[in-house]
Design goal:
Layout (H helix, E strand, L loop, with lengths): L1 H23 L8 H29 L3 E7 L6 H17 L4 E4 L10 H7 L6 H13 L2 E15 L3 E11 L5 E6 L5 E4 L4 E4 L14 E3 L2 E5 L8 H9 L4 E3 L6 H19 L2 E4 L3 E5 L2 E4 L3 E3 L5 E4 L5 E7 L1 H10 L2 H4 L2 H4 L18 E4 L2 E4 L3 E4 L3 E5 L9 E5 L11 H22 L3 E6 L13 E7 L9 H8 L12 H18 L1 H5 L1
Pfam families: CN_hydrolase, HIT
Organism: Orchesella cincta (Springtail)
InterPro entries: C-N_Hydrolase, C-N_Hydrolase_sf, FHIT, Histidine_triad_CS, HIT-like, HIT-like_sf, Nit1/2_C-N_Hydrolase, UPF0012_CS
C-alpha cells in the first residue's frame, strides 16, 4: 500500500507541475503542448503500474482457507448434541479447518413447541458459553446456526417466546455477530406429512445483518428458509458479502425437491461462495431432516456434499475465485435497478372461504382468518374483538413486529396504504365522514398485543361528549375496567362477512388495483 500511495503522490505532483507551467506560460499555451502530451502519457503509465501492483498484491495476499461443515442429527438431549458436535469440531480442526459451520437447531430439536421453549437459553447461558470456550481453545471460528434464544416475553402467558439466531464466534471466543431469522417457516403440506408453523413459537427478526469481516472474507448470515428469497441474498451481496451461509434443517420432501437447486442458484446469482450445514436423519417420531450439507463455489459448482450421514465435509475457499468470477461475468454492474422498481405492489384481496379456519399470529394471539376482510401483500385488516365504536377494526403487519420502528419502509408503505382503503370502506358502511386512525406504539402507549397495529374508528358528530374522550376509551377498552364486552366469534364472523360483501358490491375497484 505504501508503493501505491507513492505512485499516487507522483501523479498529483505532475498535475501541480503542469498547472504551474500553464499559468506561467499563459501567453504562449502552444509551447506547452509537447510537455502536456509527455505528462499525460507518463500519468497513464503510472496508473497502469498502480493497477498491476494492486492486482498482484491482491492475488498473492489472499490464500485459500479450509472451512468445514458439521452435519448433525440433533434430538432434545442438549448434552449429547454438544458432545457430538464437539467431537466433530475437533476432527475438523485436525483437518486444518479454520472456520467451522454448524446447522440450524445445533443446540436441540424438541419434540414439541412446549419442550423447545423449556429447553431454550439466553445468549449468555451455559451452551453458548461452552461453544465460546471451545472456539477459544481450538482457535477456530464457529458459525452456530439456529440457536433457540429465550426471550423475556411469555407466549400465552406461560412459555417464553424464542428467536432463531445465527451466532458467529471468532477464534478468541468473542461473539462477532448475531442474526435473528426474518423469514419464518409456516408451511403445511398434508400429502407429505409436513405441518410446521414456526411463527407460533418463534419471533421473527427485523434486520438483515451487514456481512461480518472474517478470515474467509465478508460473511453474510442467513438461516434455512431465508435461502428461498433471492432478495435476501442479493441484499447481502450489495452490502459486500463474499460468502453466504445458510445453516438449515430442511424437511425431507422440500430438500429432495429444492435444496441443491436453491443453494446453487444463490451462489450463481450473487457470485458468492455458499456454505450450508444441515441437519440429517430422524430426530424424533414427528421430525426428520434431509441432510446433504453443501459447499458451493461462486460459479455454482458443488465443492463438497455430506450426503445423509452425520459427519464433516471440508473445502478450500479461495477468494481470488470470487474476484475472477465477478470479473468474467459482471452481472451486478449490468443490473438495471431503475427498471425493476419497487417489488411491493399494492394489490388487495378478500380471503377465500377455504382459508377461514386457518389462523395467523397477531402477537401472542392466534386469530382465525374468518375475521379478515381485506389483505395486501404485507398487511391484513380484520374485525376487532372489543370495539370502542361500531366499525372499530384493526390492521396489522403480516410479519410479527412489535413496534412501528421495526417495520421496513416497504411494510410502512403497505400498512398505511391499506389503512387508507379500510378507512374509506368503514366510513361508507357506517355513514361517517371522519375517522380516528391511531397506533398505540408500545406498552406505555397502551399497546396490549405486542404486534404493531393500526386502529381505524369511524367517527360521527357527538359520538362522545368530549371529542378527545375516544383516546381515553381506546386506552382502557381492552383492559377490563369498562363496560365494553368481548364479542363472540359468531358475531365477529357476521360483521366480517358483511364487510366482505360490501367491498365486493361497492369497492370492487380496490380489488383490481
Amino acid at each position: 500500500m505504501k508503493s501505491f500511495s507513492m505512485l499516487r503522490s507522483v501523479q498529483q505532483e505532475l498535475r501541480f507541475l503542469f498547472g504551474f507551467l500553464r499559468n506561467y506560460h499563459s501567453t504562449s499555451p502552444n509551447n506547452l503542448q509537447p510537455l502536456q502530451h509527455s505528462i499525460t502519457a507518463y500519468n497513464k503509465s503510472l496508473w497502469a503500474n498502480c493497477r498491476n501492483f494492486r492486482t498482484k498484491m491482491g492475488s498473492e495476499g489472499l490464500k485459500p482457507v479450509t472451512v468445514a461443515c458439521i452435519q448433525l442429527c440433533c434430538t432434545e438431549d442438549k448434552t449429547k448434541n454438544f458432545e457430538t458436535a464437539r467431537s466433530l469440531i475437533c476432527q475438523a480442526k485436525e483437518k486444518n479447518a479454520k472456520m467451522i459451520f454448524l446447522p440450524e437447531a445445533f443446540d436441540y430439536i424438541g419434540r414439541s413447541k412446549e419442550e423447545s421453549a423449556q429447553l431454550s437459553e439466553t445468549l449468555d447461558g451455559p451452551l453458548i458459553t461452552s461453544y465460546r470456550n471451545l472456539a477459544k481453545e481450538l482457535k477456530v471460528w464457529l458459525s452456530l446456526g439456529g440457536f433457540h434464544e429465550k426471550q423475556t416475553e411469555l407466549r400465552d402467558g406461560l412459555l417464553p417466546w424464542m428467536t432463531n439466531n445465527h451466532v458467529l464466534i471468532d477464534c478468541s471466543g468473542e461473539i462477532k455477530s448475531v442474526y435473528r431469522k426474518v423469514h419464518l417457516f409456516d408451511v403445511v403440506i398434508p400429502e407429505d406429512n409436513v405441518n410446521l408453523k414456526e411463527s407460533s413459537f418463534i419471533r421473527g427478526g427485523n434486520e438483515i445483518m451487514k456481512p461480518e469481516k472474517t478470515l474467509i472474507g465478508n460473511l453474510g448470515l442467513g438461516i434455512c428458509y431465508d435461502v428461498r428469497f433471492p432478495e435476501f441474498s442479493l441484499s447481502l451481496r450489495k452490502m459486500g458479502a463474499d460468502v453466504l451461509t445458510y445453516p438449515s434443517a430442511f424437511t425431507v420432501p422440500t430438500g429432495q425437491a429444492h435444496w441443491e437447486t436453491l443453494l446453487r442458484a444463490r451462489a450463481i446469482e450473487t457470485q458468492c461462495f455458499v456454505i450450508a450445514a444441515a441437519q440429517t436423519g430422524q430426530h424424533n417420531p414427528k421430525r426428520a431432516s434431509y441432510g446433504h450439507s453443501l459447499i458451493v463455489d461462486p460459479w455454482g459448482r458443488i465443492l463438497a456434499d455430506a450426503k445423509d450421514d452425520v459427519g464433516i465435509i471440508t473445502a478450500e475457499l479461495d477468494l481470488n475465485q470470487v474476484a475472477s468470477v465477478r470479473k468474467k461475468m459482471p452481472v451486478i454492474s449490468h443490473r438495471q435497478a431503475a427498471l425493476y422498481g419497487n417489488t411491493i405492489t399494492h394489490k388487495y384481496s378478500i380471503p377465500t372461504g377455504e382459508s377461514d379456519n386457518e389462523t395467523f399470529s397477531f402477537g401472542h394471539v392466534s386469530v382465525k382468518m374468518n375475521a379478515v376482510f381485506l389483505e395486501s401483500e404485507l398487511s391484513r385488516a380484520f374485525v376487532n374483538k372489543k370495539c370502542v365504536v361500531p366499525g372499530h377494526v384493526l390492521i396489522s403487519s403480516k410479519r410479527v413486529a412489535m413496534r412501528l420502528c421495526d417495520l421496513s419502509p416497504s411494510e410502512i408503505s403497505d400498512i398505511f396504504t391499506l389503512a387508507q382503503k379500510v378507512q374509506t370502506i368503514m366510513e361508507a358502511i357506517h355513514g361517517a365522514s371522519s375517522s380516528t386512525i391511531t397506533v398505540q406504539d408500545g406498552k406505555d402507549a397502551g399497546q396490549t398485543v405486542q404486534h404493531v397495529h393500526i386502529h381505524v374508528l369511524p367517527r360521527k358528530e357527538n359520538d362522545f361528549k368530549e371529542n378527545d374522550e375516544i383516546y381515553e376509551r381506546l386506552g382502557d377498552h381492552d383492559k377490563g375496567n369498562n363496560n365494553i364486552k368481548w364479542r363472540e366469534e359468531s358475531e365477529m364472523i357476521i360483521e366480517c362477512n358483511q364487510i366482505r360483501d360490501h367491498i365486493m358490491q361497492n369497492h370492487v375497484n380496490i380489488l383490481r388495483n
